[in-house]
Amino acid sequence: MKHIIKLAIKGICVMLPMIAIYAYTWFNPLGYMDEESPHYLWNKEKVNSEETCYYDTIILGDSMANAAYMPEVLSDTAINLSLGGMTPVENYYVLQDWLTTHRAPRVCYLSFQDAHMIMEDCFWTRTMYSHRFRREQNLEILRTAEIFREPTIITDTYKTDFVSYELFLPNKYIASIMNSGFNQRYEKNVETQKRDELHRGRYVARGADEFEGGEKAALEEFYVNPIFEDYYRRLIAMCVENGIQVRIVKLPHPENVGFTEEYKAQFHEFYGNLQKDYPEITVDWITNYDRKCFVDANHLNTYGALKLSSDIKALYPEDFGTAPFTKGQAEAVNDSILTVRRGEQLIDWICGRDYTLFLNDGAGVYSISGLNNREDGQEVLELENGLKVWRESADAWRWEEHVLGDFSVVVIDNYNQKEVCQKSFWREKETCRLAE
User: Can you tell me the distance from the alpha carbon of 264 to that of 215, in angstroms, rounded to the nearest whole number?
Assistant: First the structure.
């Protein structure tokens, strides 16, 4: 009997590390998961939680859509549910889950880059890895992929991979655990999700990095993989059945990217056929923006997202209503203003919003109101967008001492009654560069 007990104790001791790793893997994903997993988990929690407020506008798509649509600029009732790497396959289930826990939105914006209408590159490494969807949804994806014989999903090891991910087996997670150390990614991932909440889902290319690629290129073929067309149509049909207005937007590329006539013909043929079957949908193609709006060849940076969201709002003003700009929207805009590296872009951020910009060039102090609602004082000039510049007294703002720069600015958020930032800039030929 004692011998049996000793063997049992030894067996337990041998198994304990494996049990501990398994439990850690199952119950603490934020402690070790990397890359886009915290965004996927935020999305999962947001979509599957009971409704606390009504979102009348949702954005679905991939990383190109996630980077482009800025909810805080669109409206206080818009949310960006797109995720990096996702195809129409995953987005179908995102909407399916959303409609289970939330009232149907009035409008759904759909945008995908061409690559995610052709191949699946995130199902195993992100969707299954992060357990974004329920088991029955994953099985349905696999069954459909088997029918279409989709090789980017139905791999040589897809059955064993499915079991390993579903059961959180160490062979799929041990590398992440070893690379992260014990719980070393938890605080960073929690902070990541807080910013996702602040920006209501937008997380791709948050910053002011600019695309420097210069070689001209032309996209030659527009093709949609049959499995993705199937799910694309399912997604649109679900919207139509629930009274949701579908707005498909082909997002812009940098100005050095062009399109052959064959590409244009294939694009218009595909979406023309789609509109014949679903006449309620709208399709818009925004071809190009200046490269300073991009972080790379596909993704808009934060300034580009401001421009795109402003253009969409001007194109479909009825989608976004006339509700006043809120303190929460201002907090998200403030986070973006902190990243600005071109002085002239600050004007675009405050235009139409209750912000005040003070400028000190050493010779005088000036102010600009984002609402352009000042009625008295000394007007100096009017900018191209209609905002007026006013002269102020030297003590209009208490300035920090700046060592660099031709001029300094301070941005005031009047919604939250606080200073957003102070920045200094150098004047260059066609821009004002951040002094750093």
Answer: 21
